[in-house]
Structure formats: structure tokens, C-alpha cells
Amino acid sequence: MDDPSPPGSVRSRLELQAIQELLESQRRRVTALANRDRTDSPAAAHPAAPPAPLPPSGQEVLDALPVPALLLSPVLGEDGELRDARYLSHNPLARADAVSRFPQGSAPPWTSPALLLERFPGLARTAVPRMLADTLRLGTPQGPETVQWLVCTDAGPVRINDEVRVALCGDHFLLTWERGNRLRMAAAAQQLVRTCWAEWNLSDDGVEPSRGFRHMLGLADDAALPGLFDLAAAAMPDSLPALYQTLYDVILRKRTAECELRLRGRGNRVFRMVAEPVRVAPGSLVWALRAVLIDVTTDRRRREAAQRSALEAHREHERADAVAAVADTLREAVLPHFQDELDAYGLEAAAVYRPDARGAGVGGDWYKARKLPDGRLLIALGDARGHGLEAVTLMAKMRYALGGLAYTEEPVERLTHWLNEVACADGSESTATAIIARYHPERALLRWTCAGHPRPVLVRDGRATQLPTPDDGPGLSLGVLPGTDYTATNTPLEVGDIVLMYSDGLTERRPSDPDQDTRRFLEATERCFEEAAPGAGHAGLQDYIERLVARLDGPHRTDDATLLALRRIGT
Q1: What sign for the dihedral angle of Cα 61, 62, 63, 65?
Q2: How far is it, in rounded angstroms, from Cα 137 to Cα 144?
Q3: Chain centroid offset of residue 187 CA
Q4: Distance between CA 36 and CA 431 in Å, rounded?
Q5: Is this prediction's pTM over 0.85?
Q6: CA-based, 20 to 30 A from 229: which of 120, 187, 245, 489?
Q7: How far apart are CA 550 and CA 554, in angstroms?
Q8: End-to-end distance of the chain based on CA atoms, in angstroms?
């Protein structure tokens, strides 16, 4: 409402013009009806003579007042200042008010004459003594003022909260009150629920507003009250069609209607406007429009924010699904599916992979088993840094790099050194851990290196032990420091031995420590073996590691989990 100038677009000007013409047409109708009634009235041609006045008595005037009232006389001190007021009389509404406020018999009856402040000492600490003195001194009515005080009765204290007025009545005071300061409470209620209302006269643009009307619309206390066209001129262009339809329905169709009204200016407030017709008589012309305005700005902004969040969440979900689809396709293309292809090497292999659901279902875990030209077997398992498509891309890069390097027939410690150089050259974000091994079938020997990864576990006759650390300790993770050397460990395998390689996502608990995580893995491995030893063939080995992963997996997991199992079955 701070900027009442109309919007500048041609369409907005046309919509405002339509609203103005609608209001002016109704004004002409109401004016014509008023002029016709004045012309047709018999009283206009033959005015009635005024009735003879009948002088009422003082008590009759008191009884006719529509609010509780007391008639008091001033009690002055020797200095001429007001000291108290003496009760003289009251009207029936005052008696009814006292009966409704105080428990029966708890308050003493009025006896005339009685001093007001003597009978109710609590009034002395309110505005009433000052109002009485100012009325006597200035000769003008005082109030309304809110007066709150406690009356001590036989049944306990009673709180009084009234809006009091004092006026001179001859040489006496007329003290009246209304209960609970209804206007103030109504204004407070409007602010609490952010609601106001008004009635617009369609013949002269007069406005009868609620007490909080200006405040709700962001107007100054002395600002002119806006007419219906003023509201339209202050509205956002997108509100004008709905406002016109509401005015049309109320004024011409004579029915209740509502719309959303967005006002320009301070805060760009949004109101829900519910309007109804006010008619001269049932079924006749509408001569006023009554409307309630409810400030729904906060609700609308919350709804718009929720819609934006939902849209963003939907887009993020679609993006995650797309990433997952690409990553799954890439993983499916690069990770092997073991059946019986390693039988010629005297080995069986099985693998279980569980992605981290929080990372769009994809991660950086990888494993590999490849036949080499020299008749040996390359076996590796690693964990690339991060989650999502970037981790899968790094995983594929490391896996393919290792596959190419392995054709050089260099020892595994040399392969690990070269793979570290590849990771370091790719940037500081390309870090990974890995176990890289070569199996020599002619000697049933597994020769392996460790690059920052959990060491493999050997299961022999149902007993699980972690393979020993290389002589100079486990090597650094890949991609941390160029020029790093790695040491290989030789592990002979007997028929029936099972070697388990796994990623830390399968065992890690937070907070915990690696040693405790390893012990938990060893205990679970032996427990699964005791419950049911691995059956023969690839299917038996696969069943065993599936049961092991199920025992270790759970809601605590915060990373991908991968388990690769190798079992020696013969020469």
C-alpha cells in the first residue's frame, strides 16, 4: 500500500478500468434507488410535527443507558481538591454486572450513601481517581481508559478488567464501564491471527473498518482509508483478474466470493479476501460490500519454499538416479562375474558387493581376476576415494591401468609402485587403497602387496587368521606420495584354504578402531563356517560369503562393502 500508483502494462490498465467501471455503475444504481425512495416518501411531502417533550426523571435516564452506570457526587477536601466520590444510585445493568462477576453473597450490597474508594480500596491505585478529578476540573468527559484491579470478596479475589468513562451529569459524576476492553481485545485478536475486516459503501466510497485495518495493510494511523478501487490500484497485476471476478460476483450476482490479493509496497503482503454482499432488503440491490482480509503471506512463502524444495529434491533425485544408472552400467561392464573360469588355475572365486545407499547406490570399491600370458593369475581388490560417479570413474581408471601394467610380467611390488605413480599423476583427489596379488598355480603360492588396505584373511580348517604384515610394514595408500616402494608377501595355499579380501566398509564401525573391526570380522568368519561349512563348487563358496556379509552388514554401514573369496580346489 506504500505505492498506490497503478501498474504500467496495458492489460493491467484495462483490468483496473473494468474494476472502476463496475464500481461506478453500482454507485449510480444505489444513488438512483436512494433518490427514488426520497421522492416517493409520503413523509417528504408532509413532514410530521415534532412530539411534545416529556421531561424524564434522573433515575429514568440512568436506567435507559445501555451500559452499567453509577451516579456519584464529588467529595472535596478542605483544600477544594477531590478526595472521593459518594455513591448515589445505579442502573439495572450495573446490578446485573455485579451479580455475574461476584459469587452469591460474597460482596456486600450497595448502601447509600457510600464512598467509592472506601468501599473499593483497589480503585485508588487505578486511573479512576484521576479521571474523576480531571472531569471535575476540566468539565469534559474522560475515557475510555482500561482499568484493572482486584476486589477482595469472601470467596477470594476477583479480577476486574473494564473500559471506564466518566462524565459530568449536572453537579454529579456519571461513571460507566464496559467489560473486558472489547475493542482492544478485538485488535489484539486481529494481530494474532493476522485478520482484519471492513465494509465499503458502494454509493459514496465510505469505509467502516475494524480497529486493526490500517495496521494489517501497513498504513499509518492517520492515513486515508483505502476504497475498493484504491485496493485494486495497489494490487499486483496478477491479482486483478481474480479481484474483478470477486467484485462482479458480490455486486452483481449477490453471492459470497473470495480471491487472493497481492499488494505492492512494503513486504509485498498477500491476503485472502472473502467478501459478501450487503443488501438494502433481501433480494434487492447490493449497496455495500463486506470483506474479511486474512494475511497469508507467511503461509504462501512457506508453501512456495516447500514447492521449490520439492522441485529441487525431485531434480536431485533424478540426477542421483541418472548417476546411479551410469555408474551401475559402468560397474557392470568392469566388474567380473565368477563362475568356473578359474578352475584351470585350481581356484574358485566368488564376490559380494553392497553399495552405500546414501551415495546414490554407487561407490569406489573394485576387484579383478585376470589370466596373464605367463600362465599366472592377477587378483586385486581396491577402494577408490569418494562416492558416486567420480569414485566409479576413478575405480575403473585404476582397474584398467592395473590390467595393462600386469602384462609386463613384472612382480606385484613393481606393479603396485607403477599404479601409485598413475594415481599421483592424476591429482590429489585420486587416492585409493588396494590389495594387489599374483597367484602362481604351479607352486600354489599367493604373492601380494598391501597399499593402505585391510590385509587378507586366510580361512583354514574353519580357523580364520589375518595374513601377516610385510617385513617393512603395509605400504601407503595409492596416490598419496610418488616414488613409494612396496614389499610383497608370499602365502602358500593348501587345498581347501579360502582367502578373503574385503573393503573396510564391511567391517568399519564408528566410533571404533581397526583392530576391533578385524576381530569382529574374524569371529564372524569362523561362526559362519561352524554353522555351515562352505559347500563344493562356486555356488557353495558364494553361499558362504553371502552369509558372512549378511552377518556383518547393517544400518551402521556408512560405505561400500565388498568381499572377494578365493578357494584352492587342487593343482
Answers
A1: positive
A2: 17
A3: 29
A4: 94
A5: no
A6: 187
A7: 8
A8: 92
